[in-house]
Amino acid sequence: MTAPIPLLRVVVLVSGRGSNLMAIAARADAGELPVRIEAVVSDRADAGALEWARGRGITTSVLSPRNFPDRGAYGRALGDIVASHAPQLVLLAGFMRILSDEFVLRFSGRMLNIHPSLLPRYAGLHTHRRALEAGDREHGASVHFVTPELDGGPVVLQARVEILPGDDENSLAARVLRQEHVIYPRCVGWFAAGRLAFRDGAAWLDGKRLDAPVMCGCETKEGE
Ligand code: GAR
After folding, report:
1. Residue 221's pLDDT band (boundaries 50, 70, 90)?
2. Dihedral sign of CA atoms 119, 125, 128, 132 in order
3. Is 87 near ligand 1, meaning CB less than 6 Å away?
């Protein structure tokens, strides 16, 4: 009899509906991702993801930045909540707040983010609108390690989405989101399997330094 694979302890930070959180949880439930979501933490009490998590018996916490004098103090308190769950991996999944450098460094090498653009294009907000306004032919999503530079850490995996005539922000965002739900669980799986690491300021996959992101052929569901 083989020993069961220990599940990776994951804490997920959210600000909104949590569809990326749900996509990861669904893969874990299906036995395709060896992770356990220890806690869901939000800066907003009204984040839909919290209700969903509570309904599944996942521990939730809300920490509003309003009660803190500055980003540093907020980051320390938030970091203490996250650290109390002893995560091996911290996931930003639609967490819409700039984190202090101290927070980022506290979880350095074990924090990933999903961003709705082909980084380094369109760091920050309103990525779909900006891609449309620029007349881009393609757009997409990126998973990257989090470093103190906003949306600037090494990118691991990207999915491209073609911009179609007649696209508006909503239609484009919906197609990008479908790709997010593929690439984020995939990166989490790589990390959980010990295939993905952050070293010397770079992402490494299967022992090789990634000088460019892996591009996802997301229309076909590859075996992992
Ligand atoms: C996702 O599109 C994610 O990429 C984006 O917020 C959305 C959250 O959706 N994140 C950022 O823009 C971070 N800068 P979700 O709550 O349904 O996962």
Report:
1. very low
2. negative
3. no
